[in-house]
Give the backbone structure.
Amino acid sequence: MKSLQRKVVVGGVVALGVGLAFLLQGLGLQLGTGGRSGNEGSDPTASPVESRPLKADTSPGTPIMPLLATEAPSEEIWPDTSRVLTVIVEEKHYLWGTNTAETVPVKQLDLTEILAKASQAKGDAQGVRVRIYHVGSALPSAENELLAALKGAGLAETEIFFEQRVITLPTN
């Protein structure tokens, strides 16, 4: 009888551990073997865009190529903003993102550049002119400042899409 009771308790503990692991993974916590991650030892405050500019390519699966410091960017490599402008909020600054399913930052923008590009955007089929994404390090004050500036520039709430989920930027 003791052996059966012990097996039931051990089975219950294992089932509880597996259930807890799935729950934590669903909340965004990654469980693993405890090995080193690829970005361990890197500066968490450094922006991937500040370290090197990225060249945008909207085709899926294409690697991101850094621009040389002497290479002047031309308008043709930047994402098309005639319909929708994609902005990524990271910490206290804003990044211009591609209009693809997996948004990739290409250039840092200031608020005046965002407002100029947003006013020129015509909107997609749903009428959205600006898509706003944020990374985990985004400060709510920066997000609120951006939303207030867009609304102050005359954009309606229906013309601004604010994605609630947190996105991760590519590491390369």
